[in-house]
């Protein structure tokens, strides 16, 4: 875990607040009973926050399991020393089976062919291949159809190399728990689990709630909740905000690398989408661009914080850099920036704050996508 306050080689970074991450994890723990488990979803490098480091913090704060989206994400967690159970949230190609068994990663399973191949290989190594059965209750993304769960278990359970460790589904509209669509998914899932039990099959750990479901629909917690976005302090929707306050974990910071005062009419950046007006303007360059997850559609629209004040980003955002204007304003004089001065792209500076939600709504997307993007190249500093 990086312990410096900023990276030595680059004046742009993602600051990850481990205290906030710990408190958010505990907040989810507090939603569930002592016998229920918390599965922390750390796919996509923990939504851009750095999976290995975040998993350590979550483990210490009470995580019981981790969920990943790819086999290599699971392998990376194991190579970082993670010992808790790891669930892969989809069924990988058969070529992944050896890695699953070697690194003790439980796949989600929903095709008999995969289950058989997995069971065969496990048995030939003298192991038992644990899996979670995914049920399609209406999202129509992955899973065994909710009416076919008993048949599915019958077709795979005879295999001595297989063990069903859990049964789950995923909700498409958990942010609207009173809606008919959500109620229908809940009903289909509850009935499918009951059918499995009636037919004599042990479903193992039963789970379905994601972040919004965990917060808004505790009746569906079953044996485990799978929290992702909320752990990182981001709200999945407006409704959850009032129920479970969370602290944002990721801030994006950069230092000014260059300043200049172009004359009136001069352009800034590719395409000159901004031109210097009549007033004196200081153009400050920040070494962060769209390859760092700062979407180019925000060009000339977003703001950054400097000394607790909002400043306009100007010109097209480049791959690795962008420019900010500090305009002369006789009503509110602002000190100009110098090379090395700190600016905040996401996070708090004094009383001012820019959230991932603000940027996401300007991009017509969700905070999830922005967080993942900032994780791509920026170094993470854990504070
Ligand atoms: C991503 C994901 C989650 C976590 O969802 P959040 O909304 O981030 O809490 C849970 N379950 C599955 C199957 C997922 O794909």
Automatic annotation (TrEMBL):
Q: Where is the active site?
A: 43 (proton acceptor), 270 (proton acceptor)
Reaction catalyzed: L-alanine = D-alanine
What gene name does this entry carry? Answer: alr
Family that this chain belongs to: Belongs to the alanine racemase family.
Task: Locate the N6-(pyridoxal phosphate)lysine modifications and list their residues.
Answer: 43
Q: Which organism is it from?
A: Collinsella stercoris DSM 13279
Species lineage: Bacteria, Bacillati, Actinomycetota, Coriobacteriia, Coriobacteriales
- Domain EF-hand: start-end pairs: 334-369
Q: In its UniProt entry, what is this protein called? A: Alanine racemase
**What EC number is given for this enzyme?**
5.1.1.1
């Amino acid at each position: 875990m990086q312990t410096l306050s900023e990276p030595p080689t680059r004046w742009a970074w993602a600051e990850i607040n481990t205290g906030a991450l710990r408190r958010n994890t505990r907040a989810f723990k507090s939603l569930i009973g002592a016998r229920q488990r918390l599965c922390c979803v750390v796919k996509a490098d923990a939504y851009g926050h750095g999976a290995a480091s975040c998993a350590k913090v979550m483990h210490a704060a009470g995580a019981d399991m981790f969920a990943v989206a790819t086999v290599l994400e699971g392998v990376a967690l194991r190579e970082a020393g993670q010992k808790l159970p790891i669930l892969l949230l989809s069924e990988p190609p058969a070529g992944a089976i050896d890695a699953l068994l070697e690194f003790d990663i439980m796949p989600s399973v929903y095709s008999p062919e995969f289950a058989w191949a997995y069971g065969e290989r496990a048995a030939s190594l003298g192991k038992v291949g644990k899996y979670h059965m995914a049920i399609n209750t209406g999202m129509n993304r992955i899973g065994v159809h909710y009416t076919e769960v008993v048949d599915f278990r019958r077709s795979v359970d005879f295999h001595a190399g297989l063990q069903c460790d859990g049964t789950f589904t995923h909700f498409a509209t958990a942010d609207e728990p009173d809606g008919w669509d959500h109620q229908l998914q809940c009903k289909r899932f509850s009935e499918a689990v009951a059918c499995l039990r009636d037919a004599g099959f042990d479903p193992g750990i039963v789970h379905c709630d994601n972040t919004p479901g965990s917060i808004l629909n505790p009746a569906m917690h079953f044996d485990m909740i799978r929290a992702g976005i909320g752990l990182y302090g981001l709200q999945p929707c407006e409704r959850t905000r009032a129920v479970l306050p969370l602290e944002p974990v990721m801030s994006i910071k950069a230092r000014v690398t260059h300043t200049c005062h172009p004359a009136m009419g001069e352009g800034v950046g590719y395409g000159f989408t901004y031109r210097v007006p009549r007033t004196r303007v200081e153009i400050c360059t920040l070494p962060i661009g769209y390859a760092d997850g700062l979407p180019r559609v925000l060009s000339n629209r977003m703001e950054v914080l400097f000394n607790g004040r909002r400043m306009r980003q100007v010109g097209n955002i480049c791959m690795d850099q962008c420019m900010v204007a500090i305009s002369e304003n006789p009503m509110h004089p602002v000190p100009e920036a110098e090379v090395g001065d700190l600016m905040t792209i996401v996070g708090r500076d004094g009383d001012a704050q820019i959230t991932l939600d603000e940027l996401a709504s300007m991009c017509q997307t969700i905070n999830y996508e922005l967080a993942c993007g900032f994780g791509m190249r920026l170094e993470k500093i854990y504070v």
